Amino acid sequence: MKKKIFALLFVALFITSCATVQEEIIPEFEKIDLSVKNFDGKEYIIAQDNTNDIGNLFFYSKDSLYYDLLLAHIDKIEKQHNVQLKIITSLGIGSDIQNNLFTSLVSDIKMCDFVYFGSDNANMRAAQAGTLYPLNELPDIIDLSDSEKYGPINILECCMAKGNVYGVIPNNWPQKSNDGNVSTLFVINETLIQKYGLEDPRDFYEQNTWNLSKLEEITPLFHVEDGDKDIKAFLGHSAAFARGFSGAYKLTPIYEKDGELLPVTSNPTLITAIEWAREYITKYADDFTFLSRWDAWKDLSNGDCVMAIGETMNIVELAKEMENFGIVPFPVADQYDCKDIGMTYSAMTTMSIFSGVESPEECASIIDILFEDIEGVSKDDHVESLYNTLFFDKRDAELYVSLYKNAVYDYYGIGGTSLQTIEGLYQTKTGQEIVSSLEGVMDEQMEINIIPNYLAMQEYNK
């Protein structure tokens, strides 16, 4: 297929870490620049999340150009700063890392200095457990207001707890500004769009007409009967649909009213959003079907539906199976600008300092140095790389890299907010019934994390 070559260059953005240990890079020290910070030959261990069997470095595929460039970047740092950076994957995956960090902390046996987390919410849980060092306490070294280098604060929320920031993103590196999982997208089978002469939803988005009314208009039109074949307008998971309509109405975990910070269940727009969804799924029940994410992708690639609902984490695998596809965000409610999309995200890859290190300041300096630009490539190359290796239309690549700009964290790593709870309820209960049933559910998390994090982010956004 046209885009099979993507495996040579493109990082599996959301597939994380490896089953083998990355060998330590031993630098040569003949040409050390003593005018820069010298770490006296110390070794620092970076525990990389090990969530798959693909050998990689900071989740850059071993066969990619970026892998080699990052390897050279690390080698240069080791020589210039008289330091050794060792990458290990022996702490395991997700929750295993979290447990190993806690064991390391209580036993006073240091297993690592840093953790590079995959996009599976382990960073949030580790922050909650007290095994990570709060980076906001090191402002002279890591300036969290420098979103170009460390990532925008709304994206760092996935590794915040009690108003503290415990992880950062190498935002200057290619493909790292959106190395996570965002909901919700419609993925379009462009072959079927062309075959049946349907209007491309990407054109609606460009024309600023892509809203819920337009979705309602095209749903029956995209339901195609071709002989014995019943091609649905779209297929997808009900949870992804719930996240989509939540974003369409700009719902966030916090509702601010008269200066008071309240849970989303206090926002009357939540009922409006739920009732829209209930009316939609009743009216167009024959035109779409809810099923598992993976079945939806399979049916999309087989030509059994014109569109499928999903998340960014699925795009790379989908590209292996399809000849031509496009993407559009879930449309906005009619009262909003169609380009002002409302996205939610559940996880991002981030780097943190283990709370048991001897010198958090030295570790912060390592991050500051490591997160500089990689020589020979820029994150500005990201769109071109995506277009050349994954997407069939440049506007898809441009949209893809913009999805995180104003994305809202859904706190999935600690059980989610009420926005996640409605996923299993909106098909059978009214909006008012759902809101009543969720009263008080998020009170504890609101007090401990969501409100403190929100207030801290407001300070960084000033």
What's the SSE blueprint?
Layout: H1 6-9, E1 42-48, E2 56-57, E3 60-61, H2 65-81, E4 83-88, H3 94-107, E5 114-117, H4 122-128, H5 147-150, H6 153-156, E6 160-161, E7 164-165, E8 180-189, H7 190-195, H8 201-206, H9 212-221, E9 224-226, E10 229-236, H10 238-248, E11 254-257, E12 260-263, H11 268-283, E13 288-290, H12 293-301, E14 305-311, H13 315-321, E15 325-329, E16 344-348, E17 350-353, H14 360-370, H15 382-389, H16 394-402, E18 408-409, H17 418-421, H18 431-437, H19 443-460
Parallel strand pairs: 1-4, 1-5, 10-13, 10-14, 16-18
Antiparallel strand pairs: 2-3, 5-17, 6-7, 8-14, 8-15, 8-16, 9-10, 11-12
Helix pairs in contact: 3-4, 10-11, 11-18, 15-16
Please, could you describe this protein's structure?
By secondary structure, this protein is of the alpha/beta class. The chain folds into 2 domains: 213 residues, 3-Layer(aba) Sandwich (D-Maltodextrin-Binding Protein, domain 2), CATH 3.40.190; 224 residues, D-Maltodextrin-Binding Protein, domain 2, CATH 3.40.190. The protein has 19 helices and 18 strands. Strands 8, 9, 10, 13, 14, 15, 16 and 18 form an 8-stranded mixed sheet that branches. Strands 4-1-5-17 form a 4-stranded mixed sheet. The protein is globular. The N terminus is likely disordered.
* Number of helical elements: 19
Category by helix and strand content: alpha/beta
Output mean pLDDT: 86
Helicity, in percent? 25-40%
Outline type: globular
CATH topology annotation of the largest domain: D-Maltodextrin-Binding Protein, domain 2
Q: Ranges with pLDDT <50 over ≥5 residues?
A: 1-35
Distance between the termini: 48 Å
Rg from Cα: 23 Å
Portion in strands: 15-25%
* CATH level-two architecture of the largest domain: 3-Layer(aba) Sandwich
Just give the CATH class of the largest domain: Alpha Beta
Instruction: Count the beta strands.
Output: 18
